[in-house]
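If you are new to this repository, start here. Below is one unmodified record pulled from the training split, so you can see the exact layout before writing a loader.
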Amino acid sequence: MGINSESDISANLQIGPTTAGMVRIYVAGEGVDLPLDFDPEEAEEIADELRSAAQAARKMAESAKGKKR
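And here is the target side for that same chain:
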């Protein structure tokens, strides 16, 4: 499965600080229990990548919307 493949799989996502000073992204779903810990600098890099991807997705959606008109 790639980044652009649709799926019917659902999961819960939680994000927060740990007592060890890390940022945890916790993914839980059917057959999945995945805690991912990052130091604060890595977490900020991930946040930047998420913002960049959101901006790109917004532009793609607007472009697709404009082509339908």
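Two things worth knowing about this chain: The CA atoms of residues 19 and 37 lie 11 Å apart. The longest strand covers residues 11-17.
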